[in-house]
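Give me C-alpha cells for this 722-residue protein.
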Amino acid sequence: MLPADWPVLIVDLKDCFITIPLHPDDRPKFAFTVPTINNAEPAQRYQWRVLPQGMRNLPMLCQWYVARALSGVRKRFPDAHVYHYMDDILVAMHTQEELLRLQPQLLNVLHSHGLQVAPEKVQQQPPWKYLGVKILERTIRHQEVQFVQSVKTLNDAQKLVGVITWLRPYLGLTTTQLSPLFELFKGDTDLKSPRELTPEARKVLEEVQQAVSACQVYRIEPSIDVTVFITTPDLHPTGIIGQWNDDWTDPLHVLEWVFLPHQPHKTATALFELIARLIIKCRQRCLQLMGADPSKIILPVQREEFDWSYANNVSLQSALEGFSGQITYHLPSHKLLQVAKILNFLCDPKIAKSQCKVPPSSLTVRAKTGKAIVTWQDGSEWQVLEGHEDGSAQLVELKAAVMAFEKFSQEPFNLITDSAYVADIAQRLSCSVLKEVSNPALFDLLKALWCAIQARVHPYYVLHVRSHTNLPGFVAEGNTRADKLANPAWVAPQPDVLAQAKASHGFFHQNAHTLQKQFQLTTTEAHEIVESCDDCHALGAPLPAGVNPRGLKALELWQTDVTQVAEFGRLKYVHVTVDTFSSAMWASAHTGEKARDVIAHWRQAFAVLGIPSAVKTDNGPAYASQQASDGEQQPRAKVRVRNLVTKQWEGPYDLIAMGRGYACVSTDTGTRWLPSKCVRPDLRPQRQNSADRQGGSRDQLESHQVDESSSDHSDDSSTDSD
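Here you go.
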C-alpha cells in the first residue's frame, strides 16, 4: 500500500529480458549452431551471453534478478517503499528530498547489474502510471479500459469477465450487479460454443465503463487504523478494507474491495459460514498488502447473534483464530455500507433444538409413483394432504416438504420424515443462503422451501426416522399411514392375484419361491414375474476367471504370446515374452507366427534374459507343435570358457547364443557375455563332462594349478585320440 502524499518515482527498464547477463559457466549450456548454405564453410557456433528467449522460467529469473539488484537499495533506505514487477519499478519516500537522494543510487545499482533504464519512461510527477493504474497524490484509479462488445463464444465471455474481475477490487461492483455477465457461462462448456450478450449484459458493461471512469480507491493514511467492513448487499457478503475518520470529507476511504465467488460451493451455505470465508480472505489480503492483521473488523450482525454463531460455528472460529484486534457489530452510516433487509431473519435460527409441544406432522414420499403425502393428527383423527410431482425421488421429497411448511406456516409444528435428504436440507435452510442449481425444477422447489422457512415466525422441529419399522407409537404410526397412502399397492388391493404379485414384487422384489407361496402362483408364473423385472432378471453366472500362475523367482515361469503391429509391414508379427516374477520383457519382430519363428524368438530371449524352467503359452498350433517343444527342450552345445583372471579354461557350460564376435554362455553364476576368443567347444567325452560337473569346484581348483600350455597340449592330445 502506498502512503498518502508520499512522492513517487517510477522507473521502466529497457529490454529487461535481453540485458540480464548469463554467468560464464552457464553460457556453454546455451550454445547453438548456425549452419551454412550447402555446407560451404564450417558451421558457426555461438553462445548466449544474456538470458535466452523462449525459456519458460524466464519471467521468474527476471523477477529474481531485478530483486537481487534492488536489495542493496532496500538495505540503504529501509523507510522507502520499493515495489517491482518484472521490469517496472516503483519507489515512494516520505519527502521529495529523500526521493531525490535515492534516485541516483538506484540508477547506479541498476547500471552496475547490466540493466538499462529507459529515460523517456522515468516518471517523477503525478499522475504516475503503473501496471494499468493511475496513481495520484491521495487516490488510485484504473486507466481507461475498452471492453470487447462482440462476444461470440464462451471463450470470449470468459476473457471479458476475467478483465472485469481484475478491475473489481478498485470498482466495488457487487455480485448482483454482475450477475447478467455470469449468466453467459451457463450451457455448453465447449470453449467454442456460441454466446451472445443479452440486453442486461450490455447494460452491465455500460455500468462497468462508467465505474472505471468514476470509482477510485485511496492511498493509505499511516496514522489511521485499517478496518475491515463486512457488508451484505443482496445477501452476498462483501468485504471492504478501508479507513474511517470522521474529520474527512468522505469519512470512509476504501483501500480495496474483497469479494467471494459468484456461487457458493454448497447448495445451502450458512450465512455465517460465508462471512467466515470472507474474513479469512480479508485477513490474508491485509497480510499481503501491509504484513499485519487489520485493527478492527465490523460485522453487520447483533452481538447476541455473533456470540451464538461463534460458539456453534467451526468456520467462524477458524476465521478468527489468532486475531488480536477489535470486533464490533454496528456498521457506521455510509452509502457503501449496505445491509440486506432479510439479514436479521437469516441470523435468527427458526429451527427448534427440541420437539415442539404440538401434534407431529409426518411426511413421506412414494418416489416411483410421484405421490407426496403429508399426514398429521387433528385431535383423534388423522388428516391427509396429497400432492404430485413428476421427476426423481429428490423432487418428490422436496414437494412434500414444501406442502408441509405451507400448511403449517402460522403455527409451530414437528416435521417427521423418513427422507434423510429432506431432514438435512430443512435444517440447513434455516440460516443459509441458497445456491442456484442447474436443474430448474429442483431450484424452484428449493427456492419455495427456502422462502417458506424464511417467512416463518414460529419454530419448527425436524426428526428423521427409518421407514417400515412397524414400531409402536404415534411417530411410527403416522409414518406408516403416509407410507400406505403413498403406495398404490396398499391403497386398493387388486382383484387379479397375478397383478397383485407383480405390484408386490415391484416394491419388495421377492424371489420366485416367495411369490409362489405368498400368492399361490405356479412355478412358471412366479419365474416369469422375476425375469420380467429390470432389477431382478436372471443373469448367467460369469465364467470363473481362474488364477494366472506366477513364478516365485526369476527364470521360473515365462509367458509368451504373439501380437500383430500392422505398421511394421512384413515384420508385423511381434513375439512377446514376459517373466511372471520380475516382469522382465523381451519382444522381437518376425515374418510369421509359426514354430520356427517361435524358436527364433526364444533363442533371442534366452540370450538376453536367461533360460527359464517353464514357458506358459496358449494352445496355438505354433506352440503345440513338436518342433517348438523340441526347440524349447533341445540340449545346448557344451563349451569351455577361459577365465580372464586366472587364464584357465573352465566348464563345460551351455552355449545360449553366438555371433558378431561375442557368445552368451549360461554359467553357474548366471548368464555371461564373453568375447568369442574366450569360448571354445568342449570336445571331451560326455562321461568326462559329467564327471567334471559332479566334481564341482574341486576340479576347477586343481585345473587352476596346471600351466596354460599343458592344458592346451592335453586338449590337443585328446582331440588327436578322438
